[in-house]
Amino acid sequence: MKLADNKATLSFSNGSPSVEMPVYQGSVGPDVVDIRKLYAQTGMFTYDPGFLSTAACQSAITYIDGDKGELLYRGYPIEQLATNCDFMETCHLLLYGNLPNAAGKAEFTKRVSNHTMVNEQMQFFLRGFRRDAHPMAIMTGLVGALSAFYHDSTDINNPEHRDISAIRLIAKMPTLVAMAYKYSVGQPFMYPKNHLSYAGNFMHMMFATPCAEYVVNPVIERALDRIFVLHADHEQNASTSTVRLCGSSGTNPFAAIAAGVACLWGPAHGGANEACLNMLEDIQKMGGISKVGQFMEQVKDKNSGVKLMGFGHRVYKNYDPRAKLMQETCKEVLAALGLENDPLFKLAMALEKIALEDEYFVSRKLYPNVDFYSGIVQRAIGIPVGLFTAVFALARTVGWIAQLNEMIGDPEYKIGRPRQLFTGSVRRDVLPIAKR
Ligand code: ACO
Fold first, then answer.
1. Three-state DSSP state, 216
2. Model confidence over 8-32: pLDDT tens digits?
3. Which residues contact 179 (CB under 8 A, 6 or more apart)?
4. For atom 8 of ligand 1, which residue has the closest CA?
5. Does the CB atom of residue 7 touch ligand 1 within 6 A?
6. Please, which residues bridge with residue 73 across strands?
7. What is the pTM of this model?
8. pLDDT tens for each residue of 403-422
9. Which atom of ligand 1 is nearest to the CA of 302?
10. Whether 339 contacts 292, CB under 8 Å
11. Phi first, then psi: what are they for 116, rounded to 5°?
């Protein structure tokens, strides 16, 4: 961290002495005021629920400029990565900081491919779930259970363990997601085929059966790969911060990533693509496009509690650059599969058009986020709605593990321990039960 020339001074209106705090500069983005000694110097905490103004760590992985609508992985714009690189190159970049050359990519891909199978015992563990269990409930369990199968890579203080568990997690997530799906539809699990690409192999494990030859459709393969690239990392979002906080206690990487999966499940985060599709299906049931206006009135009515899922973002207050790329893919996939006239997709396009022109959304800078389109693409591909967030988790695993490993390698890292503003009862005495 580089010290800025200026310092911050905090003064108090009650005459308490003011305190000076150092200011640090990053390579780009807002400076930060270092408040670490504030409590020792003043006996006060800062108050920032939702982390609206708090940098919880230093990181060199992903940078977002929400006003410009810019997303960089290790300095590279997401638009360039999405059009020039595939997911394996993106994983290498996020984990090791550089884009591999052809030989480096082949070696990395081979390492990942070598770990695509899961312990055979895993299927018996999976069979303990109800067939209709939510895939994210299954994924939270399966990912956490990996720590019980790979005891040889759970020491986070050992860099080799950290590296091999990163590779294992990236390699096994598609297998686990596909197994969760196959289990829910009662089809046999399909073992990975390592000659296929990462996305192609996932499609094979999802959609192939032992009775027929399965041929990977290159348009869908490319679309899935793009979904993976666009979702690979996103700075200190809720699930990544969860992984960091969980991992800060020294727990093993599989347990920390399972915490990330659990956090991602929520509809305000990764669950938005599922929530968005459910919303579209609800409007469809109400009467479809003719009811869009009525639905929008509910969205704008604060008392209704209805939100336009797939719109808005905590950081992007201009547009989500991933959404633009996903919209492109969406059009490509719908055209390739001849689904342009599907009523649900038409409904989504009608909603998008109204929201982009409506004063409520324009004045609040609410634009479609990546999940608006990724849900539509996934549905077109044939991925069931309930599995959408698990696909997001699959893609985000590399970001989580890169961020976790960065934190553990940071000499300044400490166990995360937020403080609070206590508003409960002050000390009081317990009355004997007869007197309460
Ligand atoms: N529909 C209707 N109104 C909205 C929406 C929405 N989707 N999103 C925000 N608003 C309104 C808010 O009510 C608020 O209005 P007000 O100023 O009149 O009170 C204003 O826009 C500002 O929104 P905030 O709630 O302050 O924005 P915040 O940063 O807290 O929330 C969030 C961001 C959670 C993503 C929100 O936009 C939302 O719930 N969107 C729908 C869920 C979704 O799509 N999440 C995916 C996020 S992307 C991802 O995880 C990959």
1. coil
2. 999 999 999 999 999 999 999 999 9
3. 118, 122, 123, 126, 142, 189, 205
4. 312
5. no
6. 62, 76
7. 0.92
8. 999 999 998 899 999 999 99
9. 13
10. no
11. -75, -25
